[in-house]
Amino acid sequence: MPSWDIHRLILLQALQDVCREFILDSLGREFLDGLYRGIVEPDKKPDKVVRYRFKGRGRVSVRVGYAKHHTVDKTLVSYYYHLALYYARKENRMLSGLALGRAIHYAQDSSVKTKKYLVIDIHEEVEEELEDLAKNLGEDIQELCRDIELDEKPSKGIEALCISYEQTIEILKNFFTELRESIDVEEMLKRIWIARILKTITALALAATPLLLNIYGALFFTIPIAIGVALYRPRIYYEAMKAGIMVLKPYSYETVY
Fold first, then answer.
1. Mean pLDDT of 162-181
2. Cβ contact 39:7 at 8 Å
3. Do 125 and 225 lie in a common domain?
4. Looking at 128, 161, 180, which one is the last position of a domain?
5. Which of 15, 44, 163, 186 could cross-link with 111 by S-S, CB 3.0 to 4.6 Å?
6. Does residue 99 carry a pLDDT above 80?
C-alpha cells in the first residue's frame, strides 16, 4: 500500500485545488485534524470483512478477516463517504473529516495495481515507483497528470499517482457539493416511512401467501425472497444517511465506525 507520506501528499494537493475551485477559505481545525487522521487510520485500525458459507442442513460458518485495501470493492469507500456527510449534518466536524479520510484512503489504495497479465505480481514495483516519484516531484500533481492517459488499473507509478489524485478530487468535490444542498427532513422522513411500510407488506405477503393457499412447498422459494425484501435498502435510505437521519452499516463488513 502507498506510504502515509504518499496518502498525505495526494490529499494535500487535492484539497488545495478543490478549496481554490470552491472558494473555501477555512475548513475548520477539527475537520482537518479528522481528515488527516482518517487518511492513514485504516492501516492502524482496519475494517474487517465477514464471509458466510452455507454448509447444508441449516449450518452456516462465519469467517472474519481484515479487508484488503487494494482489492476492496467500493463498499467501504461509499460507506465512509456517506458517514462523513452524516456526521457533517450532525455538526460533528472531527468525525466527518475522519470518515472522509478513510473513504479517500481506500479509494487511493485501489489505484495501485496488484497483478499484470493476471499472474505477475507488480504491486511492490508500482509502490516503489510511487515513492521515488514523490521524492522527486518538482511540480504539482495536477500539472504532472495533465497529459497522462490513464488506464483503469495502472501499471506505472505515475499513473497510479494520477488516478489516486483524480479519485481524491472527485470525492472531495462531491462531498462539498452535497454539503451545500438543502434538505427537507420532514419530506424525507415521510418517504422513509412509506418505503418501510411497502417493504413490510411485501415481505409478509411473500411469506404468508403459500400458507393461505396451502402450498407449503412454495415456502422454499418465497421465504428467501421475503428475507431479501426485508434486507433491501432503497435509495432513500442512503439519502437519509447523507442527511444525518440514520446510519446504514454495510453488510458483510465489521467497520471501525
1. 94
2. yes
3. no
4. 180
5. 163
6. yes
pLDDT of residue 119: 41
Answer yes or no: do 112 and 22 share one domain.
Answer: yes
Cβ neighbours around 212 below 10 Å, total: 8
pTM here is 0.87
**Gap between the Cα atoms of 81 and 214, Å rounded:** 47
Cβ proximity of 100 and 80 under 8 Å: yes
Residue 202's domain comprises 185-254
Count of CA atoms in the C-beta half-sphere (13 A) of 93: 8
Say if residue 226 is in the same domain as residue 174: no
pLDDT digits (tens, 9 = 90+) for 25-77: 889 999 999 999 999 999 999 999 988 777 666 676 778 888 876 666 689 99
- Matching residue, cell 484488503: 68
Q: Are residues 102 and 202 in the same domain?
A: no
What is the signed CA dihedral for 92, 97, 99, 100, rounded to 10 degrees?
140
Position 93 confidence tier, pLDDT thresholds 50, 70, 90: very high
Written as nine digits, the cell of 199 is: 417493504
Cell 475494517 belongs to 47
Residue 200 pLDDT > 70, yes or no? yes
| 145 and 246 within one domain | no
Total tally of structural domains belonging to the chain: 2
| Domain end residue (candidates: 180, 211, 237) | 180
Does 38 share its domain with 20? yes
pLDDT band at 122 (very low <50, low <70, confident <90, very high): very low
CA distance from start to end of the chain: 22
